[in-house]
Amino acid sequence: MKRLIYMTLCIMLAAAQGQVYAQTMKYGQAAASFNEALPIGNGHIGAMVYGGVEDDLINLNESTLWGGCGVDNDPVPDGPERLAKVREALFNEDWNGARQLLVPMQGPNAQCFLPMGDLHIRQSAFRQARNPQGDDSYLRSLSLDDAIARTEFVKNGVKYTREYFVSYPARVMVIHLEASEPRTLNFALDGDSPWTGTRVESLSDTSFCVIGQLGYYMGSDPQYPFVQVGPGGEKGMRYRYIVKLVDCDGQCYTAPGLRVSNASRATILVSAATSFNGFDHDPDRYGADEKALAEGMMDAAAGKSLDELRRDHIADYHRLADTMELKIAGWDDPEKDSMMTDKRRELYSEGASDPGLERMYFRFGRYLLISSSREDGVPANLQGIWNYQRMAPWDGKYTTDINVEMNYWPAEVTNISETAQP
Predict the structure, then answer these.
(1) Are 240 and 117 in contact (CB under 8 A)?
(2) Residue 61: partners with Cβ closer than 8 Å, 6 or more residues away
(3) Tell me, what DSSP letter sits at residue 109?
(4) Which residues, 6+ apart, have CB-to-CB distance to 296 below 8 Å?
(5) pLDDT per position as a tens digit, 3-33
(6) Average pLDDT of 294-321?
(7) CA–CA dist 243, 268 (Å, integer)
(8) Spatial distance between the Cα atoms of 342 and 31, rounded to a whole number of angstroms
(9) What crossing angle do the helices spanning 79-91 and 95-102 adopt, rounded to 10°?
(10) Going edge to edge, which strands form the sheet with 199-204?
């Protein structure tokens, strides 16, 4: 108990000082799976960045994209009468009878939190992650100081840098690509979605959109396959995301995805919206205008420069991240800080002491909550805000026996109460 009190006082003191020390998660290779990709988000858009050289995959989510057609506020009208019978069965030690009475009281199974789609940045001229001279120059990183993911590598003597962040103030994802030499940046950027009926449409020479609508039933119970249209003609949620090139010093066209050539820099924005209009509203017949929402966010963000977008994003992140800092004796170790994070984790699992890694994971937990739950959004679900699967584990839903509570454990005790507002 004394140790716990001492640690609490240390944390409170660090919070009062408001100091943040540089720390970055870094890897020497692209992610091979979802669990290795780097998460970015703003409580509205979530993305997982894999960092591939020839084909950079980015999983895209929008926090309100769920299966279904709205929730019945009273799915078990005779609940009070059933509850009385359950109590009677329990008092009579009729456990099986109580269970049979309880099951219908749980209401229908919740549907799934669903992926919006994937983005692919393809630089197909590259065949491997390292340059022909064997220079081990690849670096994939996530800064816990500015909430920006980066991929850097050298090919044929040219350094390429990709920068990714999701801005809460601007409500868009920002992707910036840069080459160290003129006219050496050539790439295709395409978007898709896994759902039936998805359309990809060119909007202009510099923008395209991905449009679709979910089905009436999209749960994870294998006994009940996806249903596109309900018995009364009901359909599921509409969705749309827009990809727009807002700055480039080369040539660009759409086919229907973006095609960029002979450039040295390119900045791309991604906005996303759904017809979600409240948990109890039919998102098809009474849904929000997802087209107007996505276009409005894009138009507002497109008027800002990359420097403005980055500055506002970092300032907003620091507003929450800087409210406390955990210091552990020995965390500042330059030798360990120079190592890749997966190597540090491997050594730690073998028993090596690494206070800096412990501190990093503490900060990463706060980062995930800040990135997945913001003041005017919806709560973080079992997946936070990141899901690439058509059927997420446990549907990615809100299970309130313990999981929602676990998501928000850091909110109050680590001084980011704003994240608990949803």
Answers:
(1) no
(2) 41, 45, 46, 47, 115, 116, 385, 386, 387
(3) P
(4) none
(5) 433 344 344 334 434 444 468 999 999 999 9
(6) 98
(7) 7
(8) 11
(9) 170
(10) 24-27, 139-143, 148-155, 158-167, 172-179, 265-274, 238-248, 207-213, 199-204
